[in-house]
Design goal:
The chain is α/β, with parallel strands linked by helices. The chain is about 30% helix and about 25% strand. The protein has two domains: about 70 residues, Ribosomal Protein L25, Chain P; about 160 residues, Alpha/beta knot (3-Layer(aba) Sandwich), CATH 3.40.1280.
Length: about 240
């Protein structure tokens, strides 16, 4: 991470980096919650890899202090799909996956899913997940916001998704008797508490294990993301 991002007093997302302006919520957060003082540094990003550092000025406004920097798209894109768990656990999962650095996140309707979102509920909950991801990205100083999709079936992995082709060979289902996780399968799908059906297991022959025990959905999602993130860092920092 660039030291300027790490050392900034706060990090926010704005519509325009040329003329950065805080929305009402961010203005309240910086000025009233964090109690930033005039002159403190605030990094701002458009959520698509571009960012710059500003000074927090009187009147809770941002004054650009550096040129705009562009961070390239990660060479290996990490994606996690997870079967919907109960309660507010999807929000917690998205928050942590964003902090870890996952690029694509999907909530899945699997054959054994107990929790399912209808169209109206999906719209409300996805809006909430996007808000959670934005706040988590601010906290972790991300300049790329993750793509969040769903609810989708396993056919989520098609050429129409986010304009990108994901080869089935690059996708793995988390399964206790699977192979060790590698970057050969940077997309990992986490099944429901009842596990995958034989049909689902057959659709994606690559299976990876995440540890010696059976994990809850939220635990498995984080373990997969952390392992993939560590593997990516190891490859591209050496």
């Amino acid at each position: 991470m660039n030291p300027l991002l790490r050392r900034s007093a706060a990090h926010v997302f704005v519509e325009s980096l040329a003329t950065p302006e805080l929305n009402n919520d961010d203005q309240h957060h910086l000025g009233r919650v964090l109690r930033l003082r005039a002159g403190e540094s605030v990094s701002v990003s458009d959520g698509h890899g571009a960012w710059r550092v500003c000074r927090f000025a009187a009147g809770d406004v941002l004054e650009p202090d550096t040129e705009i920097t562009h961070e390239p798209v990660p060479t290996v894109s990490i994606a996690i799909g997870f079967a919907l768990p109960k309660g507010d656990r999807p929000e917690w999962i998205v928050q942590k996956l964003t902090e870890i650095g996952v690029d694509r996140i999907a909530v899945l309707h699997t054959q054994r899913s107990i929790v399912r979102w209808d169209a109206d509920r999906a719209e409300r909950n996805l809006a909430k997940l996007h808000k959670v991801a934005r706040e988590a990205a601010m906290q972790s100083r991300r300049v790329w916001l993750p793509a969040i999709e769903g609810p989708v079936a396993l056919s989520w992995l098609t050429p129409s998704v986010v304009g990108a082709v994901v080869a089935p060979a690059a996708v793995a289902l988390a399964e206790p008797d699977g192979s060790p996780l590698t970057l050969a399968t940077p997309t990992v799908l986490i099944g429901p508490e009842g596990g995958w059906t034989e049909e689902e297991l057959g659709a994606y022959p690559s299976h990876v294990r995440l540890g010696p025990s059976v994990l809850r959905v939220e635990t498995a999602a984080l373990v997969a993301a952390a392992q993939l993130g560590a593997l990516r860092d190891e490859v591209f920092t050496n």
